[in-house]
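Please study the protein below:
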Amino acid sequence: MKILVIGGGNMGKTYARSLLRAHLVNQDDLMILERQEEKAEELRREELGTIYTSADHCLAAADLIILAVKPQDSAALFTSLRPHADPQQVYLSIMAGVTIASIQQGLGVEKVIRAMPNLPAQIGLGMTSYTASEAVTRIELVLVQNLLNTTGKAIYVDTEYSIDATTAISGSGPAYVLYFMEAMIEAATEMGFNESQAELLVAQTFRGAVELQMKNDLSCREWIARVSSKGGTTEAAMTTFQATSVFEDIKSGARAALDRAIALGKN
């Protein structure tokens, strides 16, 4: 199978590297389309398959095409690709907010898979959800799932609404986590730790808490109860969070991200 990645940015390179590392494709069967000549030359030096700057030299040869460009560039992309698109090709889009129907209409194809990865995919710890049009076969869907799993974990969802919800939770989620981490790092420095010490304290605390939660059957609420002694320090912090509605604010932020994802899909 020949795979074409359209877009040589961070996510495009992430998929190219992951595919090669997992031996799902070899150098001869991997192509990247990057229209900017300077970026294309950088990709050639990285030896990530064959690099092209024009669709008419590579699109027709591909069995699977990964659309890894900014959503605001989708209309121009469709115009340039449509003359070379084949209805038998499978298109995997990671463009946030761009619906399956708009991709089908823009390219004149039927086999479209829409996925939402997140930033940790760059280090093999990503979380991706995906869904597909009815024309995609089970074999093609399994192939794409294997591809997505090379960057972390992937789950199939039934509706595009769930893709938008994924955008709000795991897509934007790393920023929420880092925002909380930033506040804790700042608190640590105000308590007298230097920047390096503060970052290590917070990063290791987050890493340990996540591993603890993932490797045991207790819920987050149950773990919080175990850490919180009556009249203790953790209880004091949690009481403050509750008084200032931190929990509800986080949920409100995620909902705002979902609303924005849905709005982008309508534009």
Q: What stands out?
A: The first strand starts at residue 3 and ends at 6.
